[in-house]
Amino acid sequence: MICVVPQASVSVAPNLACLGEAFIVLLLQHPDPDYSAAYVVIETDAHDGLKGYGLTFTLGKGTEVVVCAVNALSTHVVHKDMEEIVSNFRNFYRQLTSDGQLRWIGPEKGAVHLATAAILNAVWDLWAKQEGKPLWKLLVDMDPKQLLSCIDFRYITDALTEEEAYEILVNSLLGKKEREEQMLTRGYPAYTTSCAWLGYSDQQLKQLCTKALKDGWTRFKVKVGADLQDDIHRCRLIREMIGPDNILMLDANQRWEVKEAIEWVTKLAEFKPLWIEEPTSPDDVLGHAAISKALAPLGIGVATGEQCHNKVIFKQLLQAKALSYLQIDSCRLGSVNENLAVLLMAKKFQIPVCPHAGGVGLCELVQHLILFDYIAISGSLENRMCEYVDHLHEHFKYPVIIKKACYMPPQDAGYSTEMKEDSTRKYQFPQGEVWQKLLSGHKIHLP
Question: pTM of this prediction?
Fold first, then answer.
């Protein structure tokens, strides 16, 4: 039987003080981020002593709302049998997302869906641990019918039927073993967002790019949208640093109106960006479609998805030809279950998946999903890469391993969601030691 232990929000933002100026000006739309997470622990009465850990990434205020939603949803989880959940996962997923009252403040979006992700992430972590496998391997080893039994196809059958999804998985069995061996040997290609945040001086940009190139990075993302002339200057500097053959991407973090996005990015086209990420509101499907159509002749794609509410919005983006690169998020959608549906839709529409990561634990989680995607669904690395941001990994028991700018497949059982006890104790809000000192006005000495 299951017991859910929702934690008060864990905020590790104070630790950003040791990262220098990396987050002085983080994002135009999120100017004062307080990197946090709603952290869920699932305990059972099994004698194996295993626990499932889940989280969803937040930016500070509002995390308590997600924690309240976790508590409200916990009635659907407590006293359930784990075997009954995973043997009929589709039904359990629908039960969580279709609560007759809670869906009124969704449905399948906002705080209640973030809470759903946190709970389900913990369930998947526990299931993988019970099977003694990392999450990606648990998925890879499932037969197509078992995988499909975890997915709720409601509202997306006009884009992808269960029969079509089954055919995709069966067709991908060819070469599956070889792709798994390839990942174990080489890892999955990553790109870095750590070199070109807004607010960096030219000297910082040069230093960070030089180090990244030395470490083997060939794909670089540049934050844009504050000032056009500054963007031109920074893009020119980065392009000169990385050379013509390495890949450059742009990220506006929802900054622009549709027309403004087209005009702005057109003026940055000389720097040959692969994509412009989140050019406008994440909810504006037709706006993304207009931007995508306008920029296509310039060879610039549109990437979005990190703040996409659910599989239905992804369906519409794909149907409207509104994106060229699809960016799933392991904590924004309804955990693994909903991400599986989106990965399969992306395969049908032949759109490469390039996951969003960074934040608190997003790299740790999403690596499992993209490894599975390559091995068991897409079978391609063309124009595919996974975001990597080098911060806050020290708070996790099983942090990501990057070698030669690639994610190396995790070997520890679970979903890599478990945080170190010392970190959760110190950074728990507001009871943790770090926050008690901060709130009392004392100086904090961080490593």
Answer: 0.94
